[in-house]
Write a structure and sequence with these properties.
It comes from Attheya septentrionalis. By secondary structure, the chain is of the alpha+beta class. It contains ten helices and 30 strands.
C-alpha cells in the first residue's frame, strides 16, 4: 500500500481496464493513489480506447459550473474530469459488452461464463415462450426485477434476480409471475396479440390487437395495477399462466372511446379548418349509417407510453370508406380523416387529452409512429414529469410533450414542435429515404436531447446499400430551434432499427447490415450489431458484432429486430425474441437485502 502513484500508474498501463477497478479495491491507500492522486492515468486510459473527452473539460475550469472546484488546481480538476468521463464510458461499455456476449451465447446454445450479466435462456424451461411468441417490450420493474411482454400468448412476465446458491455471490434469474392480459380468450374465431407494453409507478398497460374474420383488427387497452399483478390469485393453468381475479384487469375498446370523444368535440372558429371539415365528414358518415360506426376504421400504432395517474398515450388514425362517384369505375377506397395522439384514462374509461394538427397527410393510415418517454426522477409519486417524444417515418415533424405525473389536472400537458424542417425525400447521389409502413422511425430521449435516425438507401452496381443519419435535437421549449444541433452519418451499409438510451450520456443503436442483388435476387446474410454512442461528443464508443445472432430470429429485419432494451439507474434488461432475457448493470449484478 506504500507504492507511490506513479509506480501504480505505470503498472496499470500494461493491464486491462478492469484492473484499475480491482487495484482500487485492494486497500484504501491504493484507492487514494489510483483514484485521486494519479495525474495522467485516466487520460491515458481514455486515449488507449480512443474514447472521447468532452472539449469543455479544459475550458470549463474556473467557470460557474465548477465553482466548487475553484480552490482545486487545474491538474486536479482535469484528472477528476477524466476519471468521471472514463468511468461513465466504461460503465456503458461494460453493460453493452455483457449484452453482446449474452446474445452470442444464446446463438451458440452454450452457457454464458460472463460474470457481468445474468443470461436466462428459455430452451430448457417449461412453459417458456417459444416461436413465434416473441418479446414486444421490456421494462425495469425495480433494481432487480424486469417486466417483459410477449406477443402471441398475451402474457406479461416478471423476472427476479436471485442468488444461485446461498453460499456464493453467483446470481441467476427466475420467472416470478406470469399473467395473461388479453381482452378475450383466444378461440378459433378470435385471436389477440400484445403489440406494446409500458408501466409507471402504479399501473401496467398493454396495447392489444384482436382479430376476427373481419378485414380490420380491433385494438384494446388492457391495464392492471402493480399490486394486483403481484397478488394475482388462482393457480396456474396447463401453460404456467396465473389467472387474474375477476375485475383486476381493465379493458378499454379503443375505437369506441376515441369515436365517442371525437363526436363530442366542439370546434372553435380558430380551429384548423381541415380538422373542422374532417369532423363534419365523420358526423355525416355516421349519420348516413343510422348512427352505426362499425365501418369507421381506427388503426393504432404499436407504441404505448404510460403518463401516470392511470393514463396511457397512443397514436391512432381514424378512417372511413370513400364511395366513388357513379361515373367512376374505381372501387371504394379508405380516406384517413385524423391522425392524432390520444391519452386514455383507465380510471375514467375515456379519452382525456388529445393533440390536433400534429401530422400532415403523408403517412399511410396503417403506418407506425414512434412514441418514447423519459421519466424524471422524483422522491414521491406526486412529483416528477414525463417527457414524451413523437416521430413518424413519413413526416418531417418531431414533437416533444411534457406531462406532469400523477396530477388530476391535464393542464401540465404541453407539446412543442422541435423539428419542422422537411427532410429531403430525394437525397443527392442517388440516396432515398427508406420508408416502410411496418417500420417505426428510430427515436430516443437521452438527457436533454431527442435523437432520431433517418435510414437512407440506394442501388448501385445491382446491389442495395444503406446508411444512417443520426440527428440530435434539443428538448422542446417555447423558444427551441427546430433545426438539429448536430448530425452524425453512419456509413458502412448501416441500417438502424432502434435507438435506446443508456443512462444520461450514451445511446445504443441496434443495427443490421444487408445487401440485396437486383440481378439474380441473391440475398446476402443479415448481420446484427450494436453501436454505442456518446451523445455529448457525437462519437462512437464501440461496435459489438453479433455474428450468428441473426439465426435466433426469422428475419428479414426491415420491420425491426425483436431485441428490446430498458435501462433505468444502474439496471439494464434485454429481451431477446423468444430465446431468453439478459440482465446486467451494477444494480442487477449486486445482491442487496430487502430488494422489492
Amino acid at each position: 500500500s506504500s507504492l507511490p502513484c506513479h509506480i501504480l500508474e505505470y503498472i496499470l498501463t500494461f493491464l486491462p481496464d478492469d484492473a484499475t477497478g480491482m487495484m482500487c479495491r485492494v486497500c484504501k491507500g491504493w484507492y487514494d493513489e489510483v483514484g485521486k492522486h494519479s495525474p495522467d492515468l485516466w487520460k491515458f486510459l481514455l486515449k488507449r480506447r480512443n474514447w472521447p473527452l468532452l472539449s469543455e473539460v479544459s475550458s470549463a475550469l474556473g467557470t460557474e459550473e465548477n465553482s466548487e472546484e475553484m480552490n482545486a488546481s487545474p491538474k486536479q480538476n482535469s484528472r477528476d474530469h477524466c476519471r468521471e468521463t472514463f468511468t461513465s464510458h466504461y460503465s456503458a461499455f461494460r453493460d453493452m459488452n455483457a449484452v453482446a456476449k449474452g446474445i452470442l451465447s444464446m446463438a451458440a446454445s452454450v452457457t454464458s461464463d460472463d460474470n457481468d450479466s445474468i443470461v436466462h435462456t428459455f430452451s430448457t424451461r417449461r412453459f417458456a415462450p417459444t416461436s413465434p411468441n416473441e418479446c414486444v417490450g421490456v421494462r425495469i420493474w425495480s433494481e432487480k426485477r424486469a417486466l417483459i411482454a410477449y406477443r402471441t400468448d398475451c402474457t406479461i412476465r416478471l423476472f427476479d434476480v436471485v442468488p444461485m446458491r446461498s453460499t456464493t455471490e453467483a446470481m441467476s434469474c427466475r420467472e416470478a409471475v406470469c399473467v395473461r392480459v388479453a381482452p378475450f380468450p383466444n378461440t378459433k374465431k378470435r385471436s389477440s396479440e400484445v403489440i406494446a407494453m409500458d408501466l409507471d409507478d402504479e399501473m401496467i398497460g398493454c396495447l392489444c390487437e384482436s382479430r376476427t374474420n373481419g378485414p380490420q383488427p380491433e385494438y384494446f387497452l388492457t391495464a392492471i395495477s402493480r399490486e394486483d399483478f403481484l397478488c394475482a390469485g388462482g393457480g396456474a393453468d396447463n401453460f404456467g399462466i396465473v389467472e387474474l381475479e375477476e375485475g383486476a384487469l381493465t379493458v378499454i375498446h379503443i375505437r369506441d372511446v376515441i369515436l365517442e370523444h371525437l363526436l363530442d368535440l366542439d370546434f372553435d372558429e380558430d380551429e384548423e379548418e381541415t380538422d373542422y371539415l374532417n369532423l363534419d365528414c365523420l358526423h355525416a358518415f355516421i349519420a348516413s349509417r343510422d348512427d352505426d360506426y362499425s365501418d369507421v376504421s381506427v388503426n393504432v400504432s404499436s407504441s404505448l407510453v404510460a403518463c401516470g395517474n392511470h393514463r396511457f398515450m397512443m397514436d391512432a388514425s381514424i378512417s372511413i370508406p370513400r364511395v366513388p362517384d357513379a361515373d367512376d369505375d374505381n372501387e371504394s377506397t379508405i380516406e384517413c380523416l385524423f391522425r392524432w395522439i390520444f391519452v386514455l384514462s383507465t380510471q375514467e374509461m375515456k379519452v382525456v387529452w388529445t393533440t390536433k394538427n400534429m401530422w400532415d397527410n403523408m403517412a399511410p393510415r396503417e403506418s407506425h409512429h414512434s412514441l418514447v418517454s423519459l421519466r424524471s426522477p422524483s422522491q414521491s409519486h406526486t412529483n416528477g414529469k414525463t417527457t414524451i417524444a413523437v416521430a413518424s417515418a413519413y413526416s418531417p415533424f418531431i414533437f416533444d410533450i411534457n406531462i406532469g405525473r400523477n396530477h388530476d389536472s391535464l393542464t401540465e400537458m404541453r407539446g412543442y414542435l422541435i423539428a419542422r424542417q422537411r427532410r429531403n425525400m430525394r437525397m443527392s447521389d442517388g440516396w432515398d429515404n427508406a420508408t416502410d409502413r411496418r417500420r417505426k422511425r428510430p427515436l430516443a430521449i437521452v438527457g436533454e436531447e431527442v435523437i432520431t435516425v433517418d435510414n437512407l438507401e440506394k442501388f448501385e452496381d445491382g446491389k442495395l446499400f444503406n446508411k444512417s443519419v443520426v440527428y440530435f435535437y434539443s428538448r422542446g421549449t417555447e423558444t427551441s430551434d427546430s433545426s438539429p444541433s448536430a448530425v452524425l452519418t453512419l456509413e458502412d451499409n448501416c441500417h438502424v432499427t432502434r435507438v435506446e438510451p443508456i443512462r444520461d450520456e450514451h445511446a445504443m443503436l441496434l443495427c443490421h447490415e444487408r445487401a440485396i442483388s437486383t440481378t439474380n435476387q441473391d440475398i446476402e446474410r443479415d448481420v446484427i450489431f450494436f453501436i454505442l454512442l456518446h451523445t455529448k461528443t457525437r462519437q462512437v464508443i464501440a461496435r459489438f458484432l453479433l455474428n450468428d445472432a441473426a439465426n435466433l430470429f426469422h428475419g428479414p429485419f426491415w420491420g425491426g429486430i425483436p431485441i428490446f432494451f430498458d435501462c433505468h439507474g444502474d439496471s439494464v434488461v434485454v429481451g431477446v425474441g423468444c430465446t431468453g432475457i439478459i440482465l446486467t448493470g451494477h444494480g442487477m449484478r449486486t445482491l442487496q437485502k430487502n430488494d422489492n
